[in-house]
Amino acid sequence: MSDKVQFFDTTLRDGEQCPGASMNLRQKLEVARQLEKLGVDVIEAGFPCISDGDFDAVYTIARTIKNCRIAGLARCVENDIRKAAAAVAPAGDRGRIHVFLATSPLHREFKLKKSKEEILQMAVEGVKLAKSLVSDVEFSAEDASRTEHDYLAQVVEAVIAAGATTVNIPDTVGFTTPSEYYTIIKYLKDNVKNIDDAVISVHCHNDIGMAVANSLAAVQAGARQVEGTINGIGERAGNTAIEECAMALSTRPEAFGFAPGEKPHNLNTREIVKTSRVVSRMSGMVVQRSKAIVGENAFAHSSGIHQHGILAKRETYEIIDPVEVGWGETELPLTKHSGRAAVKARLEKLGHTLSNDELTHVFERFKKVGDSKKFVYDDDLSSIVDDSLSTSNGVWQLKSIQFIAGSAALPTATVTLVKDDEEYTDCAIGNGPVNACFKAIDRITQAAGELVDYNVRATSIGQDALGEVSVKVHFGDCDDCNAKPVSGKGAATDVIEASARAYLNAVNRNITFNQLGI
Question: CA-CA 20 to 30 A from 325: which of 343, 407, 447, 507?
Answer without folding.
Answer: 343
